Input
Amino acid sequence: MSESARQLEDLIGRGYRHGFVTEIEADTVPPGLDEDVVRLISRKKAEPAFLTEWRLKALRHWLTMKEPHWAHLKVAPIDYQAISYYSAPKSKKDGPKSLDEVDPKLLETYEKLGVPLHERARLAGVAVDAVFDSVSVATTFKDRLAAAGVVFSPFSEAVRTHPELIEQYLGSVVPYSDNFFATLNSAVFSDGSFVYVPKGVRCPMELSTYFRINAMNTGQFERTLIIADEGAYVSYLEGCSAPQRDENQLHAAVVELVTLDDAYIKYSTVQNWYPGDAEGRGGIYNFVTKRGECRGRNSHISWTQVETGSAITWKYPSCVLRGEGSIGEFYSVATVNHHQQADTGTKMIHIGRDTRSTIISKGISAGQGQNTYRGLVKILPSAQGARNFTQCDSLLMGGRCGAHTFPYVEVKNPSATVEHEASTSKISDDQLFYLLARGIGEEDAVNMIVSGFCKSVFKELPMEFAVEATKLLAVSLEGAVG
Amino acid sequence: MGERESSMLSIKGLSVTVDGKPIINGLNLEVGAGEVHAIMGPNGSGKSTLAYVLAGRPGYTVTAGTVHYLGQDLLALPPEERARRGLFLGFQYPVEIPGVNNVYLLKAAVNAVRTVHGLPEVDAFDFLGLVREKMKLMHMEDSFLSRAVNEGFSGGEKKRNEILQMLVLEPRLAILDETDSGLDIDALKVVAAGVNSQRAPDRSCVLVTHYQRLLEYVVPDYVHVLVRGRIARSGDRTLALELERRGYDFIAGEAA
Output
């Protein structure tokens, strides 16, 4: 390693900035998982019988399943009986009806995170649903959305107000038996967001959910369901953070998206869960199942993710392209630093005629991080004229990290077109020196090069979040070059 | 050449090795404010090494000598600090930086200088106006504004971009490393006009070049011939013409 590379190695990584703990009284179920715990969760949420039964079915199925180990990840054993499956901030009433009723300490937490529910959200024109541990604490802009006919509420509330939609769509994209973590989620999920955009409605603002894990030894199992009815449009963003703790914490979420004819869902994620310290202690295990189904003709689902956090990330936001002429997109930036590991990518399942998909994946590895792109493009016999374009680029910083690419392609229809491009590069000394010679400091120079590398993904993010994502990337990779 | 009152750059006894191999061997050079110096020499004589050492590129080891720039110890400063204090290197082979917008880089560079001088960042609108004005001088198309740094640029476009950056940054000392190589005659005239527009009593320029062609358009105050890492001969513009006539061999022979 050259001297400059060593200096840069020393600069790698500044402390995690969202690692504070909020002192707040919480209602937490003792660790462990059995049918009683599932019933308790369901009862706490006053759920209808169909949902309790669905959870129990999931639990029974889960008990027969084995943790998957096919990913390119090293995972310390997880004791599922040592996790508490429900934790809610205690509130005097059943739940906050308006922002005034929300515990000021909670609001302060979101303020620290840069998600003030009051003013900034209003200025930004973004409706925010904030999920703290397992419970949704506040949803802004409800009235304005209601006027447009858009339902945007905590999942548990939607179970009460729109049980028929929940019953119809829950598990219709990710069935309770789907995979180990999704099945666990189906049994114990506690809250999340629900969105329904009715026929022909263009959602008047960006919708956003902010997830935060606060309590110790809890898992977060949120469930998000978004339905865009015929001709509807919605753009949705989730952000995530967690306090700094020495233990690993489990986050096993499920997101289901459904688009009917001509509908469009744009789903963006900026994931900044605590990644663990420089030695690899602690951090979130982010094992998430995200899938969208383009059920209707000419419908469109677009996933954009910026993954900078978590000790381990295991997620494959996918699209089932059932409707004729439907479009699936996946834009991803995944960074790993220190001992972080990511195994992420997408699945594009082409079922309908003339379906199209685009995959742009940018992986950045620094420190001793391991970054894996894993993708599946599957063209079924029915998908006449289907097209896919995949581009996977990896950027390496330093000599101790790794980038791996596993693109799977299955084509069962000869009329399909599938393109794959891949590249692996390093930040070159030439690029770095060029910027230094223009008076730009080393860290800024690296950030500039990395942001440039990620540009084709960042431009898919809503404007204000693109700025945030750029900053986040800068923090998580500060000074890392090779 | 003796010390001048208004010294821009003063190099004394400079020796440089790359991977242990000596490239520059006891080089002396004095550049006064307002002067244009041309450094010529055969391939491998150490011209580009000199340019890189002055700009602070890692990988070059100074084994002896001193370099003072505006009275400060230049070698003690990291490369970005040299740039912020007004030293500019025009690259022989400018790199491509995908996804980083030209104007964005220019603005970041200008703001880096301004921050050092305690000035506020430039106004985005005014700045764009300034860039457009300089672009006109360099015969650059508007599409340049939306393109990434040097990405997909032709050789000539890259060189013109270097000069554009210089015009916007307004350095005290510009070191142009073979900015003329690979340019056709029209592009060469444009580049020369750009360099000439920068000539001022408080600013200096070091032109590193293999051929005297550029010097027809940018007339230097001094010409130096570098041979085996040392200045073998200095003179005025006529030295360049003599070189053109007789080739480098006659000086190399003298220096041996």
